[in-house]
Amino acid sequence: MIQRRTFLALLGDERAGTRILLQEPDPDAEELAELTALTDGPIGPVGAEDPFSSTDLGHLGMRNWQMPIMLRRPGPVFAPAMEVTRAQRTQELQAASRS
């Protein structure tokens, strides 16, 4: 594990690969150079998560995209606005994934 002011990196094997989590939106030139070096010839896949969408990693062949998240305050859940059918077999789950 490598921990710096702006990022945390886990170096894994061929299967797990290298995982980088940006923890601050403003890596300096030295930290950015270290991030670049971490992706240079690693074993396995490389994934970087930037929750700030502020660090350009295009020079590493990486693109920015936002993962969907859902936030809701604790409390009772309202009844669904549409019919909900529970998928119990593989075929039903595959059909639900396609729709």
UniProtKB/TrEMBL annotation:
Organism listed in the record: Streptomyces chiangmaiensis
Protein name (database record): Uncharacterized protein
